[in-house]
Amino acid sequence: MNEQVKKQLDEARSTMQGAVNFLEKDLKKMRAGKASTQMLEGIKVDYYGNMTPIEQVGNINTPAANQITIQPWDKSALSPINKALLDANLGFTPKVEADLIRITLPPLTEERRKEIVKAVKTESENTKVSIRNIRRNILEKIKKLKDSGVTEDELKQAEKDMQDMTDKFVKDVDAIVATKDKEIMTI
Asked: Do 23 and 124 touch, CB atoms closer than 8 A?
């Protein structure tokens, strides 16, 4: 196979894997009945005038299946952390105790579970569209290589390889979503 075509296929594989990894990371933030420290990823706290990730201002733990505790390194950060959690609007209310913040997650209702499953499906569709866009862009680049000596047979093989790769990554997305759906709907 032509070296330039191989390079394009490797780029496609790497970019598609990145899209799948992003989906996995994003889905870990979605609540599935159990408390997880990853639910708080992406929350920024106004800490002495700087927007700081919440995991950098305190110790985050899950002492029980439905609880998350945040113990700030600096007690003066309790109020800004509480405000950041309220502003994030994640569906729970933090409770400030002596030197920590306790979040008790309410049980998920059937309706809320279905909403989360719907959000998961939306994210998976976005990822699939991203994978298909990567395929289209790489195929356009490969077709332009015809001018630099790539044969017709190599182009056809590259198109087949791209389609196989796309199908594999779409199946990976479907498997990830099926696992997450099962996790969410299990009481």
From this structure: yes
Task: Tell whether the torsion through CA atoms of 152, 157, 162 and 167 is positive or negative.
Answer: positive
Q: 8: burial class by Cβ within 10 Å (0-12, 13-18, 19+)? A: buried
Q: Which amino acid is at 119?
A: A
Domain boundary among 48, 71, 104: 104
Q: Same domain, yes or no, for 130 and 179?
A: yes
pLDDT in tens, the chain (187 residues): 678 888 989 999 999 999 999 998 888 777 666 777 778 888 898 888 888 888 888 898 888 888 889 899 888 888 888 888 888 877 778 888 888 889 888 777 788 788 888 989 999 999 999 999 999 999 998 888 888 877 888 889 989 999 999 999 999 999 999 988 888 777 6
**C-alpha separations of 51 from 55, 57, 60, 103, 104 in Å:** 12, 10, 18, 21, 25
123 and 149: one domain?
A: yes
For residue 178, what are the domain limits? 3-29+109-185
